[in-house]
Amino acid sequence: MIELATEVRWQDRYFELPMERILLSERLGYDAVFTAEGFGSDGLVPLGYIAAHTKSLKVGTRVSEVTGRPPVLSAMTYQTLNHLTGGGRVIAGIGSASQQAAEGFQGRPWGSQLARMRDYVAIMRQALDGRPVEYQGEEWSAPYRGPGNHGVPPNAIGLAPIAPIPIMVAASGPKMTELAAEIGDGWMPPQFSPGLMPAFQPLLDAGFERAGGKKEDFKIWAHVDVLVDDDVQAAMRPFKEYAVTWARMQRSFMIARGYQELADRLEELISSEDAGEAEIRTQRGEPILGERLWKEALAAIPDEYIDEAWLVGPVARIAKRVAPWLDCGLTGLVIRYGPQLSHDRMVENLDVFQAIAEAAGKEPVAT
């Protein structure tokens, strides 16, 4: 049976955990809750609070940004959560940020995404296993052996490993997807829809081959955004805006879904704007494009593109349309509520979380 999870928003100006929904999801038989981070709330701090108020839910990040934290510090944080939760409830989802986030926000060079991820996972694994960390990579190294170093010996985290912590790698491009299969315990795609697995399986298989064979316990956690509204067109609108804003990150997924012309048209429109200015607009919650191009981009997205990859409309409609998501090659599905570009928290329709749990065959549990 597919695992189900919900996710905590990072975009809101005033952070508040949706504990009513989180506790309800646990009672409904959901398996996990994830946090995220970008330019808003931190992804790791809330997990301790959530873990203290739940009994069975796994807690994880989707994702923690590898540009912003040294890998040993991340391993220390996840291992601390592992101890707090009694072991076996922590999922370490990690991913690259963006050039704007790395250089303009976190004060680090963008460098090589692939080399950084390989270094990061290697160091995290040593630290999580309780071994002294000794790794010299292209983007991350420990101990420091550069100019002015004092030759200090490798150190290990003092906390004992009490249960494995799976490392899930977020990836959108083909090379990073292969790397996720090679070095990770799972893959977290940033955009997915039923029917896409055949397009990405060869990339995963290539990564498995480099790792020495297929990983039978490899996890794939994807998300689907839902929005309950009797007006289906109104519910589609914010996700069309999302598709335009993140068109470049989703390009390979658009093409795999058969929307090559749409991907090319959005790339053409976005390329006509200054890239740095466009990302700053996105951070502010403003349209990525000027008014005229923004309208053209939204008009280019057909309704079926949204209906195939999002769940919108009345609860009964969503309950029917979720079926393909539950049998499309995923091992886990994250239910996110509402538009992801808004900085204002929405009032969530909790009935839809129950409807999806029932569609997935989840059994309510006593908490």
Provide an overview of this structure.
The chain has 367 residues and is α/β, with parallel strands linked by helices. It folds into two domains: 3-223 and 322-359, TIM Barrel (Alpha-Beta Barrel); 230-313, no CATH class. The chain has 15 helices and twelve strands. An eight-stranded parallel beta barrel has the order 1-2-3-5-8-9-10-12, surrounded by six helices. Strands 6-7 form a two-stranded antiparallel ribbon. It is globular.
Topology:
Blueprint: E1 3-7, H1 19-28, E2 32-35, H2 45-53, E3 58-61, E4 64-65, H3 71-84, E5 90-95, H4 99-105, H5 113-128, E6 135-136, E7 141-142, E8 167-170, H6 174-183, E9 186-188, H7 197-211, E10 219-228, H8 232-245, H9 247-256, H10 260-271, H11 275-283, H12 291-300, H13 303-309, E11 311-313, H14 315-321, E12 332-337, H15 351-359
Parallel strand pairs: 1-2, 1-12, 2-3, 3-5, 4-5, 5-8, 8-9, 9-10, 10-11, 10-12
Antiparallel strand pairs: 6-7
Brief synopsis:
By secondary structure, this protein is of the alpha/beta class. Helices cover 43% and strands 14% of the residues. The protein has helices at 19-28, 45-53, 71-84, 99-105, 113-128, 174-183, 197-211, 232-245, 247-256, 260-271, 275-283, 291-300, 303-309, 315-321, 351-359; strands at residues 3-7, 32-35, 58-61, 64-65, 90-95, 135-136, 141-142, 167-170, 186-188, 219-228, 311-313, 332-337.
